[in-house]
Design goal:
By secondary structure, this protein is mainly beta. The protein folds into 2 domains: 115 residues, Jelly Rolls; 97 residues, Jelly Rolls, CATH 2.60.120.10. It has no helices and 22 strands. Strands 1-20-17-22-15-13-14 form a 7-stranded mixed beta sheet, with no helix packed on it. A hairpin with a 3-residue loop joins strand 2 and strand 3. The radius of gyration is 17 Å and the shape is globular. The two termini are 22 Å apart. Keywords: Iron, Metal-binding. It holds the Pfam family Pirin_C_2. This is Pirin family protein.
Length: 238
Amino acid sequence: MAQTILHKADTRGYADHGWLKSYHSFSFASYYNPQRINFGALRVLNDDSVDGGRGFGEHPHDNMEIISIPLQGDLEHRDSMNNVAVIKNGDIQVMSAGTGIYHSEYNSDAHNQVKFLQIWVFPNKRNVEPRYDQLTLQAGERHNKLQQVLSPNADDAGVWIHQDAWFNLGGFDKGVSVNYKLHKPGQGVYVFVLKGDVKINDQLLNTRDGFGIWDTDGFDITAETDAEFLLMEVPMEF
């Protein structure tokens, strides 16, 4: 029988730094909840809003797969691999921190907020050579169907990371339903609702709710309203 865990939106950790407002689905920085450290290999899911003209100064990471999905506005990226790029709504960005990188993320628009998801996944290989990639996604490819945006395979759809992980975005009209099949035994899926109401089997989820499901081969997803959501399939043991 499938195992599940529900994280309602209003139970997330919250940090207000003035220029940065961040909701934490899992323990992060000053927010610590021993019951919410991770979901399998998924370690961080932060729902961030950055004020105009502000951002994250240069800081280090190592041995982590870091994924950013902008939801509104543009975020300027710089790193110690000499990458300078802008990621915007409709893009996905990935960094394999590996042996160590420094990077900064900055909202160069003085007047408008940037909203984005910051996601960390534990890698299955340590001390790899750091790498950076980004991709512009086609929103039409997830209308009433699942759009794969991340996988373990460089030749597959979306970006890739050093982990047996598959991410999918969905943008469903009310009443649309699909069955999701997990890729491998021992995996689980963490569902994050970006907008609207979604049912996973019989569990109703609302905007910004999170829901983990594992010990199952698959599950049904039904949009109870027009809805947008992210599915993150990861190993439960790693």
